Structure formats: C-alpha cells, structure tokens
Input
Amino acid sequence: MSSAAPDVPPAPPRLTAPEDRYFNRELSWLSFNRRVLAEACNTAYPLLERLRFLSISGSNLDEFVMIRVAGLAGQVRSGVGQTSIDGKTPSQQLAAIHTKVRELERVQQETLRELEPLLIAQGIHLAGEARIDAAAERWLKTYFLQEIMPVLTPQAIDPAHPFPFVNNQGIGALFNLRRKEDNNHLVEMVLIPGMLPRFVRIPGEEATYIAVERLVCRFAHLMFPGFEVMGDGVFRVLRDSDIEVEEEAEDLVRYFRTAIQRRRRGKVILLEIDRDFDAEAEALLREQLVLDDAMVTKTEGMIGISGLSAVVDEDRPDLKFAPYSPRYPERVLEHDGDCFAAIREKDIIIHHPYESFEVVVDFLRQAAADPAVIAIKQTLYRAGNQSPVIAALIAAAEAGKSVTAVVELKARFDEEQNLKWASELERAGVQVIYGFVDWKTHAKVSMVVRREDDGYRTYCHFGTGNYHPVTAKIYTDLSYFTADPKLGRDASRLFNFVTGYVEPQETEAMAISPLNLRETLYELIDHETANAREGRPAAIWAKLNSITEKGIIDRLYEASQAGVQIVLVVRGICCLRPGVPGLSEGITVKSIIGRFLEHSRIWAFANGYNLPSGRAKVFISSADAMSRNLSRRVEALVPIRNATVQDQVLEQVLLANLLDTEQSWLLDGEDGEYERVESDGEGFNLHEYFMTNPSLSGRGGALKESRVPKLTLRKGAV
Output
C-alpha cells in the first residue's frame, strides 16, 4: 500500500537569460526621465516649478539623444555586434528607444497643454499670438525690425547657394516662397542664432511670451519683400555630441580645443519638425541634412521643450518654491570659523544643500591665507562659470604655496569651461595636471598639508558631488572633512597616481578605482552573503544615482538568495530587477525625485550586527555602481569610521531616504515600471525634513522612531 507523496512547492525557475535578469540601461534612463516629467503634474508644487520640471525633462532628453542615442547609432554604422546587459543589439535598442522617445515627447506636449490654462489663470501666456492687439503688433514689429532681423541671414536653397550648416540644438525655419512678378517658386532657410532669446516677452501687466521662431514666421513678409509666403515650417536639430579621446593624442589641451569644434558639427541624430511643416520644404530638409538612420519626430506643440527654462525665470516668487537659505555648519562656528580647528577636534560630515557649500570654499580660502599651510592639492571635475574654488586656489598660489589642480578635460559639456580654468590657474602659478588620456578623474578630493607644532598634518575633504557652487544649492551631496592620517596618506597616494602614474601598492583605508574599488565592493557584498548563510544579521543599504555593473548586480542577487535584506535608493538608471522570485526577493529598489536632485552615493553594510546597536560599515563615494566608474574613472570610496559621523550618515541621511513616501517611486522587478509609493501612516517628505532640520549635528532623533517603513505601490500614479 503506497502513500501519497507530500506536496512540494515547485522550484523557482532558473533565471539565466539576460532579459530575465537585467533591465536595459537606456530604457531604464528613459523611465527615469519619465519620472522627472511626472513631477510637472505634481499639484503639490508651485506652478512655475512644475514648468521647470517639464523643461528639465526636455534638456535631459536632448542630452540623452546627443550622447547615448548617438553612440548606439555609431555602433550600428560600424557594425558593432556588442549586446547590452539585457542581451539587446544596438539596432534592437535603437528601435525600442525610438518608440519610447516618441511617447515621451507626446507626453511632454500633453503636459504643456495641461499647464497652459493654469499659467493663463496666473497671467502667464506661453503661446500669446492670439492676445496680440494692434498695440502689441506694432511693438513686436518694431522689436523684430530692430532686434531680430539684423542678425538673421535668409539663404536661398538652390544650386548656387549650398545648404547651410545647422548647429547642434539649432532652430531654423524654411519658407516656401512665390515671387509675385513671375510666379517662380523659391525655398529659403533662416537659421535663428542661439544668442537670441528663445522667448520674447511683450510689455504689459501680464506676461505674454512668443517663441522667437514663431516671431520670425509671423514677420517673414518683412524679410522677403516681393514674395508671397506659400508655406513655412520650424525645425530643430540635435547632433552627435560625444567626444572620443584617441589614445595617440599627444596634447590633450590641443586635442580638446579641436574636438569641441568638431562636436558642433557632429552627425544629425534627431530632427524635430512642426506637424504642419510645408511638405516641399520638409522633403528638401530631409534630403540636405543627410539623415540616414536619424530619428525624425513631428511635433504638434512646442519644438525644443527645454527652452521653457526662460519662462521659468519670470519674476513670480508666488509661483515658485519659497527661497531656502542653507545653514552654515555649527561645528565650524563653534570654533570661530576656524575650519582646521573644527576638523582637528573631530571629523565633520556636511549635508548639502541643507548645509552651506560655503564651508568647503572657506576651507580652501583659509588654507590660501594660512601661513602654516604649505601645500594644497585639488581635483576639479565641474567647477561652474563663477568659481570661488578656483579663486581660492589662485590666491593660494599667488601667496607662494604649492598648489596642484587636477583639471578633468573630459567632463562632458564642461570641456571648454575647464580649459579656461586651467589656463587661469596656470597663469597664477598652479601646477595643472590633466590626468589620464583614457580615464576621467571623477574623485572629489581636496587635500591641505599644514605645518603644526607636532609636525605636518593633512586635512582632507572628500565629497560625493562636484566643487560647483551652483549645483551645490540643488544637489544633495555629502562633504566629509577629516584629519585622519590614514585617509590623508591615501589621498596623497591618489594624487600621486593621477599626477605621476605612481600606482599605489596598497591603500590603508580608502579604495580607488580603477585599482581596487570594484573588488572592495565585491568583498563587502560577499561578506554580507557569508554572514547571512552563517545565521548572522546581514543587510545592505545603498544610495546611488545608477546601478548597471553586472558583477555588483549578480552579487546582490546572490546575497538576496542567501537572505541578506537589501534596500537600494537609486535615483536614475537601474539594471537590477528587484523582488523577482528565485532571484531577488530580498531586494527593494526605490527612486526619489523632488525639489532637490538626489546625488550622494552611500554604501552601508550591517557587518554581522543588528542595527543600530552594532557597528556597520559605512562608506561615501564619488562613484556609482557603473562599469565606467569602476573601470574607466579615477574614483574614491571613503570609509566613515568615526562613530558619530557614521551614525549621522546611517541614522539620518540613509534612513530618511528609506522613510520618504512623498517623493518616492518603487521599481517593479517584473515589468520595469515605477509606481509612486504610499505609507500606512502619515507621509514623510525627505527634503522638507532636512530643510527643517538642516544640521547633521544631533538633529536626527525623530527619524529613529520608525526604522523600517512599510512601502506600498500607489496604483495609477504615473
């Protein structure tokens, strides 16, 4: 007599196919930009801030096309067969991207149409042609004749007049004309110089704007006397804007000066045209631009939606976020503004933009003026147009100190500005280093060597963000000040590596890519996996901008399967699939989009202890979990070993990111879609919390009351 076999749950499927294990990088980025665009529909925001998010989604998409889409198109032309992490060929990715880009542009135009009546109710008119009365018409005509027409150059398109070059992000208009005296037809092009304002504001109590390209079309008859305008159309061009550095480049400065000029003439990647573009003019445009495999999109609304940033500048504080003034770090004030005394007493962590970036500038200013300081070493990736950091370095050099600046020429779209800064620094006597030909120096490190009573002491600043005073007001980043001798020696090793190719045999505390940062993260994840298998507490918390590196993703999958609880706060690209049975049940991924751009990179590992009673391993970094950061950039992973500072990062910054429900989205590992989250109780807004509690000096107690928030999806929120 046989007994029935007990019910055994089926084994989870073996997920080995790339598309089952990973999301596509490019499509994940487009999903991120869709979340940015969704903020334009967030009724909790002031109206012009919603318009700002719409504009940002446009500028984001422009850069994506100019760099990522251009790169894939180049791979297709070159016959490159390399597949993405999810197994897609370049052609397959381009096809999927084209569909998503068109959908994103459609939603952008819908969003603009939704915002327009709200703006009108507030006295702001974006497409104000219908509001032009006789007085406004006279003013516009005068403005056109005096301010616009003198800088326009109409050009006939025929065998005697070669087709003009259209600049990257250039806007132009084509006109189909009929000469009145002989009925001959002619096509003319008018390119709109980038120096002209994108929108013209008509004087008046209410703000009435007209796009400059529409103004050109409106008064075309003034440019073409004796002709009848039979049809017209506005277009915009995006070109390949990436700069490839050749290994044989002998002089990086000269190479980049030439490459910047070449970039302006890159291959056309996207052509935007009006939906009602004149058919004959459109055919000519398509032929002359040599589009090949370029995307062509027809727009029923505004071309170049990024240009709305000009309207956001309208002086209407009632329609914008209330101004926020960051607090100067109290620890430094307690030492009468002496940065070195404050750091010498104890390590300091600063949370931007809630705490002022001015303390970073003051650290360098004090170093420049302090006779005891003998040397300053500084990395510069993006410093901005008006940089007090550059001014401080110049002052230090002029004061006779040894100053070394590592200026990264390969900082995309900041190459020209960085060349300018490099020239000014060199003229002041700063030793300027351009780093590696193949790798970008992306680490954010400032090092000051000071002569003191007990010998030389090294003070360091390690950041997760750039030394850029403007972005420091809108990017959330961490600044870590320390006089830890081990970190000081490691910082010196990093600079020697960049300036003299002296590869350190080992580091005492920090990890450096591309030398050992990847391996360090692998070991830390593997250690948590081993702890889980041995029954010890195991958890990983991380805050990143992007995660695409296959080795890290696979190790996180393995850790999840071993029982490690993993929460990732990933603002942008995420190739990892969370919550998939048999693969990643223990992983949660959330994205935070709000008033400030989440930019800090933090890793935390339970290290076999129950938190918060035990001592975790906590790190800040300049690097995201991306192959480029770990293989082709110089980056720093810095341990936070001071107990107080570690608690501030773990118990305040990271925990607040987990608790946020008002600006957060959860990633569905099955379909890659994001949904806004909601909590069972009262909502928590990360940015509002830190604006109210800006200092990390003991103000995070309220967060500890709820350590593990329960997050659920709010369906239909997208």
The chain has a mean pLDDT of 88. Residues 47-78 form the longest helix (32 residues).
